[in-house]
# Entry
Amino acid sequence: MTPLLEAFSAALLHFAWQGCLIMALLWVTLFVLRAGSAKARYTSGCAALALIALAPLLTTFALYRAPASVGLATAPFNVLPSGIAHSSSAPRTSVLAAIQSWALPAWAFGVLLFSLRMVWGCAQVAALKRRGQPVGDEVLSLVVRLRQRMGIHRQARVLVSEWSGGPSLVGWLRPVILLPAAALAGLTPQQLEAVLAHELAHIRRHDYLVNWMQMLVETLLFYHPAVWWISSRVRHERELCCDDLAVSACEGALCYARALTMLEKLRVHAPVTALGSTDGALLYRIQRIAGVANHEYGPSRAPVVVTLSLAVAGLVFSVNWARAQSQPANDYMSQGDTLLRSGVNELALQKYMEGVAADPAHRATLQKRCIEAYMRMGRKAEAADVNAQLLKEHPHDTDGLAFGATILLDQGNVAAAIAQLQQVLERAPDNPVAHFDLGRAYIAQGDLMAARREIEEAIALRPDFTRARQALERLSPGAGGDANEDELARLQSESAKAPERLDLLQSLGTAAVRAGKFDLAIYAYQKLLDRTREPSELRGELYLKLGDAYVRKGDSAAALDAMQKARELAPGNRLVLGPLLTLLDGAGRHAEANQLRAGIETVAAHQAELTTQFLNDEVAAAEQRLAKLRLQPSADAEKIRQAEFQLFELKRKASASPQLQPTGRVLESIFVAGMTEAMRKQFRVPVHVGDTLTQDTIGATYSAVKLFDSSLELRFLVQANGRVRLLIGRQPN
# Structure
């Protein structure tokens, strides 16, 4: 069940006490107005009916949009709690959940039955109208005089009906008054005039439209006695209002009372969609017209007992339901953790997803559990989607940022991964997994010294970090030459033992590329493509890796075919563009390459414009924050320093944004000038020849150059062949 349907189901149950509360308010209002006009009581009843209709809608909206403070978890995704916290309220929660799950189907079935009631009434009315015969000219002239007297401008047909009940009004846009033949024969002209005045009063007041709205509310909220009681009060007061108009139009109260008495002798039950002169408590109406009636304002005892009982049941349910909401995450999380430890990943994922939908207060933690389950099943693209949603709701969540960095690393976007992991460690310097992933990124970049430093830091923070220790051993002197071979052998063995694990196949492909075993990498990626049907973005990523393996092997034709499929399946993956352009040019397909290049330039220019505008806005906001801090008499010097640093970083990014035009192009060469030999040995940039440039890699390159020596300047020059040349040199004094 979706969150919206769950909220609506709960709202239907909450209406148990809400309806009783509205009924009680109307009862008090009618008691206060018992000596007042019928029009005032009718207006109060309509207002109560409107509240009745709005209550479930407003409750649904409140439950669906309920705000909650989300506690951000700091545990790594692949670490589950050591113990399972079983909630003592689990049985109660399951019972309440069962009640709520059945509420919606039961309500839908009831609405269907009561809708058939409306359809049956409409069919009856239509049949009466079809079989009706026009009245004589005398009756028509009487109706015209009454319309003029009562100020009614709408036309109304009058038909003689074979139905042996009282006069009735049907229709709103084209109203029709149905007069039984017996009524025409049994009423005097004065009595007939009074009865017709009553029906015309319904037309003047648009009562037929209001009656249809009443029936709609009765159909949708059929299960609550308060709805029927309020609706009956509205119908009763409506008839009294029309009686008042009829008496004032005919100026003969006694004649009208006799007409009602005569009609009662002829009456049978009217169709549910018709309005009749004999509706309501007829004896009370006659006594009221004659001026001898007592005030009538309240419900009988039976509805009071039923509705109060329903109110108590609704209140008890609502209290228990609210209490149960305080600990749903423990149930979802503990059950999901148990399933995940048992290897039942799909069921664990289902339990976590239910928790994400049902418990906004622990949504972030449960989303991270979903990511862990997806990763265990090798469904990295879906894990990335959940992580994107997590970062959309909590953009500074360090776990989400760290996982996003590993995705960038797997895609080969090493510079962007390093920049994002450094950002994570600025906020959470004691996160061992982030240190380890940063070490992995440095290994991919070729900076083994920095990799060793980060992996050692991860082990210092978590001595039992087995993967970090294994990685450090591979970096040790004498072990580096066989590191890739050992990793490859291990992955081949594990994937052979567990062929269903797609994550092992993907790791095998990556390790095979690093070890130069391109045929093995191609085999692994083709196996993954055979087993992966959805989503298309994941297949596009796999085709990209397959194409890269073909490129490294030297099979340009197969590489081009794979890259084109990657482009088709994942058009938003910009990592495909650079290799695809190179392969198209190499195959002599220059027209296609130029067309693709033009599209890249258009998108890159638009993105650069948006990025520059965004960064300029951020710089202005940072300047305002810094100015406010400096104006505060007791401003913390550390806060001012941090604000100054943030402003410096934003200005740096803003000044670098015009360099974003090369985004999506391949870096052809790097030219460095104005450095000594010693400086060249220490100098590193996070991009390499052959890389496809992105906004992240361009920004990271700018940062690396300026941090190394602020007097250096850099430029990305787009060449005639569409590739980019990076120039780094010293600024003239």
